[in-house]
Specification:
Layout: H1 4-9, E1 17-20, E2 24-28, E3 38-42, H2 54-74, E4 79-83, E5 94-99, H3 116-132
Antiparallel strand pairs: 1-2, 2-3, 3-5, 4-5
């Protein structure tokens, strides 16, 4: 059975897309720690990040770097934190979280409840900055 992320890549489940390449996809986390919390995934379903082949791993990391630069440009923050947990969805993914303090990257924090309009505005802002890079 396909993971929820594969269903997002295939268009079976909607997402707030911020960027896409032939092999990678980035979209807003719908249970964000901070506005702009973005997930970066390979389109190919592989459970564990470090099980990706070297070429796709390198491509995903370079893609994540560019997405993080776009997040930082679009969302007021001091830095963009990076986390790889991978326990909740069996599809390799990288969390990019806008941060003003290290506590912003604590996954025990209460998740934000944002309106669809806020998600759309944030996704559009990040996508616009990504396109400029």
């Amino acid at each position: 059975m396909a993971s929820v992320f594969t269903k997002i890549v295939n268009g079976e489940i909607p997402s707030y897309k911020v960027a896409e390449t032939e092999h990678c996809y980035a979209f807003l986390d719908i249970n964000p720690l901070k506005a702009g919390h973005t997930l970066v995934i390979p389109k190919k379903e592989v459970d564990y990040l470090f099980d990706l082949d070297s070429e796709l791993y390198a491509e995903l990391m370079l893609f994540a770097r560019k997405v993080a630069m776009a997040v930082k440009a679009a969302v007021p923050c001091k830095r963009v934190g990076v986390a790889v947990l991978g326990m909740e969805v069996p599809h390799a993914h990288i969390h990019l979280v806008p941060m003003d303090s290290e506590g912003d990257l604590d996954f025990k924090n209460k998740k934000l409840e944002l309106t669809p309009e806020r998600f759309k505005e944030t996704a559009a802002a990040i996508a616009s900055k990504y396109a400029e890079l």
